[in-house]
């Protein structure tokens, strides 16, 4: 089964359509598109997508409703079909400097709706002759302050950086449900819910328990950076909902494991040690858009080679749905060192090989063969072996071959080296700062 998600961050819909064949050939099972709700058509900055002006219109700098329909159709015509997930922003509306800033979309926009047929052409649902939200639909409180980020009530009911925070009134809930049902009826296969830790349980249940939406794949962004935050936000989310989530606990464990002095032993059994989400609720990642694009999170960036090794881990391990981030060098203006780091991901041979391995061993059980502070080796079923050496020196690792095809001929998916495994014990050579993903030769043709 193909399940790896390609995150087409702030990418124009036509460009995604043109890349569908490459994405399919690279082995991806789904595409996460940028937020499609109406935002400033002239705003090319990525953060504009996260400031919706109206639920009822699908239009932005990235394209409109027809391009989205074309994208869904092309993805669903591939074999196997590529699923299309939409990034949805429903916690808040746009921060706009205008009179009556809590009326959405506002009188100026309503006048545009009346005179410009573009808006009716991109109508998702509803009546554009009327406003959508008024001041009564918002939690009119102050911004969340730095010392309040561990206060769950303030995080839920406070404003996020001046973004008007919607309340969970019956009218708001109705509009959110209507919008998501309309998107589901368009053909979207799932939704990423942005800033979900800022929403009430009532707001989440409102759409998650709706039949047309519950049949889709849902995952939320419950951003945490410590065990303390996980107790406050992740643990209640897992208890109170059925939705999947970004696996920030595993990401924190990965960062700790790959830091200088950290140990790869932490990645041997992270779920059992409460260092990862349950396997069936996790969207795994080693980089997401908030990390390079928000200065407050850039300290979470892995070294480039560690990022490569971490990808081998999340695409080699069992459990979770891996997400691969791709952008268009938009962080380079401020951070020139980012150039080409996350662009043209579909053409990167290492990621291509890792996804191929992931798809070949999908559903096979994982068993640890060897672990130390700098080396981790595990098998997937009886035909796949993953070996990671984060250290600066080469390693010869001996392990028991029970459970593997023996004798067996294996090829490293990443480097294309070949080896013959035989005997009760086997010694594997792992060069410094490298990952290997060995696949029994019969599976390389799948």
Written account of the structure:
The protein has helices at residues 13-25, 65-76, 107-115, 117-121, 152-157, 170-186, 201-208, 211-214, 227-240, 248-258, 290-293, 304-316, 349-360; strands spanning 5-8, 30-33, 59-60, 63-64, 83-88, 190-193, 217-220, 244-246, 282-284, 321-326, 366-371, 375-380, 384-389, 395-400, 408-412, 418-421, 425-430, 434-440. It folds into two domains: 5-360, Glycosidases (TIM Barrel, Alpha-Beta Barrel), CATH 3.20.20; 366-445, Immunoglobulin-like. The mean pLDDT is 96. α1 (13-25) runs parallel beside α2 (65-76) and α12 (304-316) packs parallel to α13 (349-360). By secondary structure, the protein is α/β, with parallel strands linked by helices. It is globular, with a radius of gyration of 23 Å. The chain has an eight-stranded parallel barrel with strand order 1-2-5-6-7-8-9-10. A six-stranded antiparallel β-sheet has the order 11-12-13-18-15-16. Strands 3-4 form a two-stranded antiparallel ribbon. Helix content is 29%, strand content 19%. The chain contains 13 helices and 18 strands. β12 and β13 form a beta hairpin.
Shape: globular
Q: What proportion of the residues form beta strands (DSSP E)? A: 15-25%
Mean residue pLDDT? 96
Q: Could you say how many structural domains there are in total?
A: 2
Please count the helical segments: 13
Please count the beta strands (DSSP E, at least 2 residues each).
18
Biggest sheet features? 8 strands, parallel, barrel
Cα-based radius of gyration, to the nearest Å: 23 Å
> What is the level 1 CATH name of the largest domain?
Alpha Beta
Which topology of the largest domain does CATH recognise? TIM Barrel
Structural class: alpha/beta
Measure the end-to-end span.
Answer: 12 Å
Protein name: Alpha-amylase
Keywords: Carbohydrate metabolism, Glycosidase, Hydrolase
Domain Glycosyl hydrolase family 13 catalytic: 3-358
Catalytic activity: Endohydrolysis of (1->4)-alpha-D-glucosidic linkages in polysaccharides containing three or more (1->4)-alpha-linked D-glucose units
């Amino acid at each position: 089964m193909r399940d790896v998600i390609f995150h087409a961050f702030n990418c124009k819909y036509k460009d995604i359509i043109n890349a569908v064949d490459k994405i399919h050939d690279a082995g991806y099972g789904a595409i996460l598109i940028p937020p499609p709700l109406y935002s400033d058509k002239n705003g090319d900055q990525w953060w504009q997508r996260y400031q919706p002006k109206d639920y009822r219109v699908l239009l932005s700098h990235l394209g409109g409703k027809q391009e989205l329909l074309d994208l869904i159709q092309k993805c669903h015509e591939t074999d196997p079909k590529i699923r299309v997930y939409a990034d949805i922003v429903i916690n808040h509306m746009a921060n706009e400097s205008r009179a009556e800033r809590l009326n959405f979309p506002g009188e100026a926009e309503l006048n545009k709706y009346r005179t410009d047929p573009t808006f009716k052409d991109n109508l998702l649902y509803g009546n554009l002759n009327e406003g959508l939200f008024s001041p009564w639909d918002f939690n009119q409180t102050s911004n969340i302050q730095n010392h309040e980020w561990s206060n769950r009530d303030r995080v839920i009911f406070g404003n996020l950086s001046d973004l008007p925070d919607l309340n969970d009134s019956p009218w708001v809930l109705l509009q959110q449900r209507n919008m998501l049902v309309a998107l589901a009826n368009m053909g979207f296969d799932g939704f990423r819910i942005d800033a979900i830790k800022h929403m009430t349980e009532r707001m989440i249940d409102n759409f998650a328990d709706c039949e047309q939406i519950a049949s889709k794949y849902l995952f939320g962004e419950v951003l945490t950076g410590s065990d303390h935050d996980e107790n406050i936000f992740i643990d209640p989310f897992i208890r109170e909902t059925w939705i999947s989530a970004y696996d920030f606990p595993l990401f924190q464990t990965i960062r700790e494991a790959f830091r200088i002095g950290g140990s790869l032993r932490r990645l041997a059994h992270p779920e059992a040690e409460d260092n990862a989400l349950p396997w069936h609720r996790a969207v795994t990642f080693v980089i997401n858009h908030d990390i390079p694009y928000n200065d407050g999170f850039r300290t979470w960036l892995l070294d480039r080679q560690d990022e490569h090794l971490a990808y081998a881990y999340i695409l080699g391990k069992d459990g979770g749905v891996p997400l691969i981030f791709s952008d268009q060098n938009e962080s380079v203006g401020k951070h020139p060192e980012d150039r080409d780091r996350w662009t043209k991901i579909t053409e990167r041979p290492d990621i291509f090989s890792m996804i191929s391995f992931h798809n070949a061993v999908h559903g096979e059980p994982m068993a640890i063969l060897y672990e130390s502070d700098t080396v981790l080796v595990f098998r997937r079923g009886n035909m796949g072996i993953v070996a990671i050496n984060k250290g600066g020196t080469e390693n010869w690792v001996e392990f028991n071959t029970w459970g593997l095809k023996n004798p067996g001929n294996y090829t490293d998916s990443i480097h294309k080296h070949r080896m013959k495994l035989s005997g009760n014990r086997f010694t594997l050579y792992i060069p410094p700062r490298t990952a290997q993903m060995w696949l029994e030769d019969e599976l390389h043709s799948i």
